[in-house]
Structure prediction request, 109 residues.
Amino acid sequence: MPKHASSPKEEEFDLPVRVQPRASKNEVLGWREGALAVRVTAPPVAGAANEAVRRLLADFLGVRLRQVTLVAGETAREKRFRVFGLTRTALEGKIGTWLAPYDKTESRS
Prediction:
């Protein structure tokens, strides 16, 4: 399985995310440097940015908020979120257009 979305169990995926807090708007930018790049307006204070990213990912992926949890990187820009109840096919349907160029780059390395 490619590095960008590892699956510890069926229908669970760890998604690497690079976060830019205090942005002008909440948005998913695309796949960059091996992680899904996102911007959130919340500051990195008392978990506010983490919660904003969690909400953004849930909305973007079309899952419930409780299906997205932070598993690594609580105080770092590089984070890992676990997404539950989303099949690999569904995940690729949401972010596949960004993963395709990354997969080609990975195979050349």
In short: The longest strand covers residues 12-20.
